[in-house]
Write a structure and sequence with these properties.
This protein has 449 residues and is of the alpha+beta class. It is 21% helix and 49% strand. The protein has helices at residues 2-12, 18-61, 77-85, 97-100, 103-106, 110-115, 132-136, 417-426; strands at residues 66-68, 73-74, 118-120, 160-171, 175-181, 195-197, 202-214, 217-235, 241-244, 257-258, 260-283, 286-309, 312-336, 342-365, 369-394, 400-414, 434-448. A hairpin with a 5-residue loop joins strand 15 and strand 16. The longest helix is centred in the N-terminal third of the chain and has 44 residues, at 18-61. The protein is rod-shaped.
Length: 449
Amino acid sequence: MGLLGGRIGIHETGSTSLVDVTTFMRIKVVRRRITHTLVFAAVAALATQAQAQQAGTTQRVTQPVYQAANGENIPAYASQYAATADGNGYDGSPVGYYDEEPQATRELGVEQVANLTYQPQQADATATDTTSSQIGSGNCCPTSCCQTSCCTPFWVHRNSVFFDFLVLKPRNADVANAVPQNGIGPTAVPFGNVGSNSPTYQPGFRVGGTMAINRCSSLYAAYTYFQAESNGSTFANPPLVVHSLVTLPQTGTAASDGPAALSRDAIRFQFADIDYRRLIAGGNNWYVNYAVGARYANLYQMFSQAQVNGPTITGVGTRIGMDALGTRVGLLAARKAANRGFYMYGSAFADILVGNFRASYVQLNNLAGVQGFNNWQNFRPVPILEYELGAGWRSPNGNWQFSGGYYFACWFNAITTSNYIQSVQNNNFVGVGNAITFDGLVLRAQRLW
């Protein structure tokens, strides 16, 4: 600047040279170019920053396609929902995420979609199938579990086979058949304990399986068999006699009473069930399913008694069979401990069955022959209510499951052996019906895949 000022000073005094004017003009052009360069650099920096912010926002909304654990290609529905929840609205494209997502995912709801397990697609991946080994790879698990299927939520429907060991007791199916008394005839009075056939806890089984339609629904099929028997005997020493409570009162003679009465009773039921089950709501560690289906039920009761009096034997035998078919609805729920295999479960079902009861009664005497017989059929509804509560454990890889619980079932409007015998004795078959219950322990072993 000193040089420049000197040159200008010379210019003012009239001593200016051509070289001094040229140098001044060049310096002025350089200063103008430097100013323009700084302005352009500042504008470019602001534009780059704005473009980066816009690109970051767009990247949140348009996430790459993720592959679900069930093998379906699902657009970034969960990511888009998260972006919308944070205030970044939907981009308004003609084809939205809701229109492109699979039906199974669309019906789960927000909470269920949040619980789905997603795995990023590799850049060179072309297959859409996801095997169990792929499910367990990576850091997709929220726990320390490192098994192959630990990423599968607890609520997912899977293929399985199972075997249940039942230990049940029939109730309200007792048959009081004999009582000691102090003589023969209408003036005799009871004089001892009533002899009764009362089945105790007996084993049974249930076997079946499930076939997963998709992650949210499955088909269930099972067969159940249970039978309980009871043997009874009543004795009396003279002058007491054993009086039968199941013989026809019209044939009452000295031959129908004796020193002993031997009896046998049996009750059996069978179920054949097929259900459609679907998820209502669920999370990583819990679920609630509903079930609708059909049931075939068979109920069989048998009773026999032999009244012994010297060489004379009076026998009574009854048979009651029922085949019923109808619909069933129910709810099933379970809750698993976080990061553990232990869980609690419960189920409740209501069956509306319609069936035909077939009953027969016969009284025989080895000397007199047939003393009386009866056949009866009755078509009626037979509702069944049942529930089961218990606890279980699932293996870390999710392929084995063991449980145990309490089971209770009530058969309404059923014809029992005692009801039928009293109807035959009174010759009155109006309003015959009672409830039979079964309750006890259920132990299950199940294999899933």
